[in-house]
Amino acid sequence: MKPLIYDLDYPVLEKALLALSEPAYRARQVWQGLYQSLWSQADQFTPLSAVLRQKLGETFAFSHLTPGPILDSSDRQTRKTMFTLPDGYAIEAVLMRYGKSGAVKTRRTLCISTQAGCAMGCVFCATGQMGFKRHLTSGEIIEQILFYARQLQPMGEKVTNVVLMGMGEPFHNYEATMQAIDRLGDAQGFNFGARRFTISTVGLVPMIRRFANEHRQVNLAVSLHAVQDELRQSMLPVNKRYPVDELLSACREYVDKTNRRITFEWALINGVNDSVDQARLLGERLRGLLCHVNLIPLNPTQGYAGQGSTQERAKAFTAELARFGIPCTLRLRRGIDIQAGCGQLATGKTR
Ligand code: SAH
Ligand code: SF4
Fold first, then answer.
1. Given 134, 149, 290, 327, which residue has the most CB atoms within 10 angstroms?
2. Are the CB atoms for 143 and 162 separated by under 8 Å?
3. CA–CA separation, 203 and 298 (whole Å)
């Protein structure tokens, strides 16, 4: 199989062009074509000679993702696309619009996948329920973003934020994830700053420590969902390996080292983790930490019977947290009608 061109760092692309007997500066033209003009086929690279365009096409793959139908939610604010990979596995990515179209403050947040499936087995997550298929390469992570950037381009719009909250556990595919972020950050290319990315992790403690030591500008979110080990373990098997105490101390280290705010995610499940007592326990654990809590009523999935909390319980939980001075946001569900909500992404093998 031909190498996917988005898997190449700039110096590697330079070497590849030298190997094709091209001067190094050609790499700049190819890079700009890929990441600024957003070209997706060798024959679009018109600044290059026809001979080189042909060589490029023979040497590299320009796409590993074959998009399926585009699904729009009924409010047209959420769009989901499934992509088939060359080996038949499939992934999904979701674009969310916030604010009025054309308004200065409109955000277009893209939620992308880092793995086909996931090995972490969280019981309420459709991706976890399907099991692990494989890691995505950095180029496959990048291509999801380029796909949506190309869609928005004719309307003069851009992806403004990327969250790594689609299928997969980004810290289980650490290298490829960071390579993708670094490659897209290049000012001569896509120029997408690290601070516009948010990584969400189920709580792989050694990777949180590594991430803290690397002092990256990428935002960090941690899926907490419970602060009692027994309960957390029943939902997130990974808690056996990295229990709450250990996880929260790694989070504190992260904040101390980087001075960056950390986000905790908490899917509110009716009668499971949404009592006022549990909010108090959470408040006590997080007191004094530079953090934010994102509460989201659980989205339904086939393999889990729990239900999202009622408005009333969600509000009571929020109010209790507020007593501890912990900033929190009660999130709206999005894209439920097209199974594009958090934890609803799942695909079979498509061939
Ligand atoms: N693997 C990473 C990122 C992908 S999941 C992680 O687990 O953090 C993104 C978020 O959706 C996580 O906070 C996850 O706990 C949450 N989630 C999973 N299933 C959900 C569901 N059914 N309803 C609401 N949130 C869910
Ligand atoms: Fe994997 Fe995240 Fe789903 Fe857990 S919630 S199974 S870590 S994708």
1. 149
2. no
3. 19
Atom of ligand 2 nearest to the CA of 125: 3
The per-residue pLDDT for range 216-235, each reduced to its tens digit, is: 999 999 999 999 999 999 99
In whole angstroms, give the CA distance from residue 188 to residue 277.
51
> Which residue's alpha carbon is at the smallest distance from atom 21 of ligand 1?
343
pLDDT in tens, 273-295: 999 999 999 999 999 999 999 99
The protein residue whose alpha carbon is closest to atom 4 in ligand 2 is: 122
Question: What are the φ/ψ torsions at residue 262 (nearest 5 degrees)?
Answer: -110, 145
- Return the residue whose CA atom lies nearest to atom 4 of ligand 1: 165
Residues ≥6 apart with Cβ < 8 Å to 184:
35, 142, 145, 190, 192
Q: Which residues are catalytic?
A: 92, 342
Q: Is the pTM of this model over 0.70?
A: yes
| CA 15 – ligand 2 centroid, Å | 38
- For β-strands 132-135 and 115-117, DSSP reports them as antiparallel
Q: Which tokens in the block code for residue 183? A: 């490659």
Nearest to 109 by CA among 166, 64, 174: 166
Q: Which atom of ligand 1 is nearest to the CA of 200?
A: 8
Residue among 94, 109, 211, 223 whose CB has most ligand 1 atoms within 8 A, to mutate: 223
- Of 260, 167, 132, 144, whose CA–CA distance to 208 is shortest? 260
